[in-house]
Specification:
13 strands; 15 helices; four-stranded parallel sheet; TIM Barrel; about 40% helix; about 400 residues; globular
Length: about 400
Amino acid sequence: MSESPKLVAIRDKVRSGERLTEEDGLALFLEPDLLAVGALANEVREKRHGDRTYFNRNMRIEVTNVCVASCLFCSFAKLEEHMPGAHTMKLEEAWRELEMRMNDPGGPPTEVHVVNGLHPGLPFSYYEELLRGFKRIDPNVHLKCFTAVEIHFFAQHYGMTYAEVLEKLRTAGLESLPGGGAEIFDEDVRHRISPDKATATEYLEVHRVAHAMGMRTNATMLYGHIETFAHRVDHILRLRALQDETKGLQAFIPLAFHPDGNGMKNLPAPTAVDDLRTIAVSRLLLDNVEHIKAYWVSLTPDVAQIALRFGADDIDGTIVHETIYKAAGTSSPGALGYDELVRLIREAGRIPVERDTLYKVVREHTRAEVPEAALKPRDRVRPKLPVLQGKQVPS
């Protein structure tokens, strides 16, 4: 396939360090040659990180799925406490989840990641004590908890400013914010899919306030539903503008929409091609965010592994208990073991690097060694093929 003039021009801009435009981003989404787009994103990825691919020893806890918001894409939330499937953990139940992981082979989690529904009936002290309890169990564990949407809800529901909410939670042990709740920033799309929660402006403002307080945060984008490529580009560029201003974003995580069990179940899920292209375009447009994450829970481990050659340099972590995507029908497992993550990264030809939440290196593994015998042609007799229902399996 001959390269398009637009792609050639974009490659020249990338290699010269010139910032890509909105028009460039749209051209990358429309470029027929996916592999060429991926190769360019991989070039940028390797210039930043070489073959290093990051992961961490983390665990997720969703303490409540009761939520006042009615997002069409959500299969996780329950509007009322008494609805079938609704749950809100007692604090002791949530703490026990961490206690059970303290003797994991190789060590306990270095991060607890908490994302919840917007529960109208819990006192703010519930969340403060939740964090304090985790820190009592393990003072060294990093608490990455509560999306910007949750922080906005806390501020409105409990009558505080964003800064007051964050300061109280930081006093209790909060250290960084996850990136969930960004969805799509375009006002029309956002109103159609999530009309009753934080707006794009409010989401970005929470991150702005957190960054001003010295906190690091992540950001996401939910793609593959009713949005267009132009909406995705707009979303990414708004995050780029925030990063220009605050320099507080440390990772961007594109999240694939899953349709099962929600208000948009008539829509197809994005394909692997769309997943890989979105990762690649994100890497090329977000020139000021250091890390692009291939979240294996939403992509599946197989696609996340391939994404490590399409611009992603992080594959997330062990997770342990993920319920949000599980409710939406993901085929991904609920957890991956430490050794499984190392193997996935190595088999992608990358070097596994265990990190903490703030990307400080905990352990850098060696590159997988290929046995010398595997590189030589082997003269051997072909084994007999198995017989199925009286017929030999064709070779």
